[in-house]
Specification:
Helices cover 30% and strands 23% of the residues. It is of the alpha/beta class and 193 residues long. The protein has one domain (7-191): Spore Coat Polysaccharide Biosynthesis Protein SpsA, Chain A. The chain is globular, with a radius of gyration of 15 Å.
Amino acid sequence: MSATALPACSVLLLAGGRGQRMGGRDKGLLPWRGQPLIAHLHQQVRALGDDLIISCNRNQAVYADYADHLVSDDSDDFPGPLAGIRAGLAVARHSHLLVLPCDVPGIDEALLHALLATALQHPGQPLMVRQGEQWEPLLCVIPVAHAAAFEQAWQAGERSPRQVMLALGAQALQCPMDDPRLANLNTPQLLNP
């Protein structure tokens, strides 16, 4: 399926964490195969649309080269990925927001198209990747119409993107347990084996 067969979507790359498992370094800017992690994601998603958003809480000048729009958390205590998702939903220009973490550089065009095509089959519900029984809430597509529900959940104290999406009737894109495209390079050992 070609990118032109899918409607434009907004894309949110999550790079706003504190990088605890990386010794506090900004994970999205760490090198992998000669480029920052964020560059690998940028190359995969750029063709999907004209609304590429990066959620980052530091190094904004560097991230700006990879994005159409930058967002940051509304507090400086790194409250987690749901904060970045809320910020992305608030500025998204298209009907759906594709969300990806910055540390899955192995994601490919086929998986991105499967996510978007499956989301279109359930246009009013979020879609999350699932491996076996494990949900992967940071690999998802969210209808932007649910922005208010995400905000309401946040104000009620919820911090789990998975819980918010399950409450909204999330659908699953089932992937194999050992799918290498979903390898999460979130420790120095995984980044540089």
